[in-house]
């Protein structure tokens, strides 16, 4: 038996750090995440032993450390029984270390596949609980919708975007940014606790114009990460020079996202920057 399916990437339309848990060091977040049209391809086959193989990927990921392998083991633990061995091949189209949730999307897609394939009937809430133990972004991908995500990433409230018709370009500079390092850079900048945060994040559902979105989009990690990685400042400048109305970093980086007024400007920027960076892709935000 051989099954093929896809797992999408995401972008952060908002990332506010609103606190830090003293015991664990984890950060409390308020985010608006949206899935996009860029996706990895996953193929699952019956096998003699469980194995996860990643192709078209810049880094080598041992099978046992792959998030998909960990998802399989987490499901076995949850149901109290081993699953039949599977070979999973992931063809990466989403850059790794980009802040686009490629690994978490793979994990979420595998969770849902196992639930369907073996008729586990775990239900969305239990799938989210299992997923949150493996990767903080997995619950978001199980929602299949833009969402307001809070806590450490485990609280997901799907939201419908009234409008997001803007041509969108993603540029990955060819190097990753480690998530833990990104938050560490933020911690160093925030030596003193800032005042109460009023993010007013719920208004995301009624934003319509590009002007409103430009004002709303924010990423607390962007300033410290761009300071540490001047090459990302160059990416932002180049996208602005090519006509982007708004350029922002997604997640902990290193991918930069640009919004354009029209398709012509976005297409021209894509053609120009394709000669400068290894990954330049026009994408659609899935609303």
Tell me the layout of helices and strands:
Elements: E1 2-20, E2 27-46, E3 51-55, H1 67-79, E4 86-91, H2 102-117, H3 124-134, H4 138-143, E5 147-151, E6 155-158, E7 168-172, H5 179-189, H6 210-216, E8 218-219, H7 222-228, H8 230-241, E9 246-249, E10 256-259, H9 263-273, E11 279-283
Parallel strand pairs: 1-8, 3-4
Antiparallel strand pairs: 1-2, 2-4, 2-5, 5-6, 7-10, 7-11, 9-10
Helix pairs in contact: 1-2, 1-3, 5-7, 7-8
Describe the structure.
The protein has 287 residues and is of the alpha+beta class. It folds into two domains: 2-158, Ribosomal Protein S5, domain 2 (2-Layer Sandwich), CATH 3.30.230.10; 168-283, GHMP kinase, C-terminal domain (Alpha-Beta Plaits, 2-Layer Sandwich). 33% of the residues lie in helices and 28% in strands. It is built from nine helices and eleven strands. The chain has helices at residues 67-79, 102-117, 124-134, 138-143, 179-189, 210-216, 222-228, 230-241, 263-273; strands at 2-20, 27-46, 51-55, 86-91, 147-151, 155-158, 168-172, 218-219, 246-249, 256-259, 279-283. The strands form two sheets. Strands 1, 2, 3, 4, 5, 6 and 8 form a seven-stranded mixed sheet that branches. The chain has a four-stranded antiparallel sheet with strand order 9-10-7-11, with helices on one face. Helix 1 (67-79) links the parallel strand 3 (51-55) and strand 4. Helix 1 packs parallel to helix 2 (102-117). The longest helix has 16 residues, at 102-117. The protein is globular, with a radius of gyration of 19 Å. The two termini are 33 Å apart. The relative contact order is 0.18.
């Amino acid at each position: 038996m051989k099954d093929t399916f896809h797992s999408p990437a995401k972008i952060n339309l908002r990332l506010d750090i609103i606190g830090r848990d003293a015991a664990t060091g984890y950060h409390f977040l308020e985010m608006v995440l949206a899935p996009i049209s860029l996706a990895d391809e996953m193929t699952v086959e019956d096998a003699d032993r469980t194995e996860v193989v990643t192709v078209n990927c810049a880094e080598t990921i041992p099978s046992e450390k792959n998030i998909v392998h960990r998802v399989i083991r987490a499901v076995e633990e949850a149901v109290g029984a081993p699953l039949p061995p599977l070979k999973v091949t992931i063809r990466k189209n989403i850059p790794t270390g980009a802040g686009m949730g490629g690994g978490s999307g793979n994990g979420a897609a595998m969770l849902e596949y196992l639930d369907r394939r073996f008729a586990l009937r775990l239900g969305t809430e239990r799938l989210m609980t299992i997923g949150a133990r493996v990767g903080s972004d997995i619950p978001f991908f199980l929602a299949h919708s833009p969402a307001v995500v809070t806590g450490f990433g485990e609280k997901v409230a799907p939201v419908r975007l009234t409008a997001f018709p803007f041509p969108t370009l993603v540029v990955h500079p060819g190097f990753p940014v480690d998530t833990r390092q990104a938050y560490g850079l933020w911690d160093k900048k925030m030596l003193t606790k800032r005042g109460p945060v009023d993010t007013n994040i719920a208004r995301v559902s009624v934003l319509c114009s590009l002007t409103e979105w430009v004002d709303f989009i924010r990423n607390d990690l962007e300033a410290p990460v761009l300071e540490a990685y001047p090459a990302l400042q160059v990416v932002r400048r180049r996208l602005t020079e090519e006509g982007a109305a708004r350029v922002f970093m997604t997640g902990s980086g290193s991918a930069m996202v640009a919004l354009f007024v029209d398709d012509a400007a976005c297409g021209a920027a894509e053609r120009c920057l394709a000669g400068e960076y290894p990954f330049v892709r026009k994408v659609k935000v899935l609303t």
